[in-house]
Design goal:
- The chain is α+β, with helices and mostly antiparallel strands and 119 residues long.
- The protein has a single domain (5-44, 53-114), classed as Nucleotidyltransferase, domain 5 (2-Layer Sandwich), CATH 3.30.420.100.
- It is 43% helix and 19% strand.
- The protein is built from 4 helices and 4 strands, in the order H-E-E-E-H-H-E-H.
- The chain has a 4-stranded mixed sheet with strand order 3-2-1-4, sandwiched between helices.
- Helix 3 packs parallel to helix 4.
- The chain is globular.
Length: 119
Amino acid sequence: MIITKKERRLRRAVKTRAHIRGLATARLTVHRTANHIYAQVTEGAHSRVIAAASTVQEKVREGLKSTGNVEAAKAVGRAIAERTKAAGVSKVAFDRSGFQFHGRIKALAEAAREAGLEF
C-alpha cells in the first residue's frame, strides 16, 4: 500500500491534536493550499469556532499582491489574533495540521504572537 503525502501529513496532525485535546484549551488550526492560507480558533470542549481568518476574505486580502506568500500569511496571523482577542481568548494551542513549521506556517504563527496571542 502506498501512503500519499497528504496521508502522511494527516497522520502527523492526529498526534498533535491528541496532545492538544489533553491541554483542554482553545486551538488555533492552520491550513494552507498553494493559493491561500486559512486559520481558525476553536473552543476545545465543544469544537465551536471562536474566530476565523483567511486570504479568501476581502478585509484580509486588502493591500496584498498575492494570497499564497509569506506576507499574506502574516496578514492572516494578525487578523486571527485580533479577532480571537476580541472574542475574549488570549491563550491558544497551535495546531499546524501536520504541516512543517516553516515558511508561511511559521510567518502566521509569529505574526499572531506579535499581535498578542499566547501559545
